[in-house]
Design goal:
Elements lengths: L1 H21 L6 H6 L4 H6 L3 E2 L14 E7 L2 E8 L9 E3 L12 H4 L3 E6 L1 H11 L3 E4 L7 H6 L5 E6 L3 H11 L4 E5 L6 H8 L1 H8 L7
Helix pairs in contact: 5-8, 8-9
């Protein structure tokens, strides 16, 4: 019972922080535009910018906040630098376990779903291209129970980053699930392919037409 109360309290705090940061999302408009993500799409995904940090979030000032939204509330927030020169590019909350991003798409998907490496790639596929998609923060973040979550899908499109870890991630999923790997060129990923070539290019690589979506 104590554990449940702690979980609920944590979700409440994350929800408060997320709602606060959402009010400053306009500060990321130029960055999001460069990634092909409209401001309204970012708002629907509850993205924000940390302008006035909640206690314990001081290290994330000026970063894009990316909440992990589930039916029961927000279970995590990750923070992305808006300046490509700033490292680390991504920061997670202290002590937080990695989780699957955009899990609500599991319920809205039909017979197939996509998997991306990275939240903004997932958001691009789900909201901009229109492909139901979930994601993980990085190539080494997949957990065994994620496989069970996706086991009932007839087909799973894995949008592989164009580097060694991305390709290995896709191949490792193919050993466990009915995967179709959608690869991009060296150094490319789902978001960069979308911004350069558009949604039609990605659907063509998937072998889909608009009637199939």
């Amino acid at each position: 019972m104590t554990y449940v109360r702690q979980q609920n309290s944590q979700k409440e705090l994350l929800g408060i922080a997320s709602r606060k940061y959402q009010e400053s999302i306009y500060q990321a408009e130029d960055y999001l535009r460069s990634r092909g993500i409209p401001l309204e799409t970012a708002r629907l995904a509850r993205l924000g910018v940390v302008e006035e940090p909640e206690p314990g979030h001081e290290a994330y000032i000026g970063r894009l906040s990316i909440p992990y939204v589930t039916k029961s509330g927000i279970v995590d927030i990750r923070f992305r630098s808006l300046n490509p020169a700033v490292e680390p590019k991504y920061m997670g909350m202290t002590g937080a376990d990695t989780k699957m991003y955009n899990v609500l798409d599991i319920e809205r998907a039909g017979d197939w779903i996509g998997v991306c490496e990275g939240e903004l790639d997932t958001l691009t596929m789900s909201r901009c291209v229109g492909i139901p998609c979930v994601g993980v923060p990085g190539a080494n973040s997949w957990k065994k129970h994620y496989t069970r979550l996706l086991a009932d899908f007839e087909r799973i499109f894995v949008f592989a980053d164009g580097d060694g870890p991305g390709r290995e991630f896709a191949n490792s999923l193919a050993r466990e699930l009915p995967v179709t790997i959608v690869g991009f060129g060296d150094g490319e990923d789902a978001n960069s392919a979308y911004t350069k070539y558009g949604a039609g290019f990605i659907k063509e690589k998937m072998g889909l037409n608009d009637d199939a979506i």
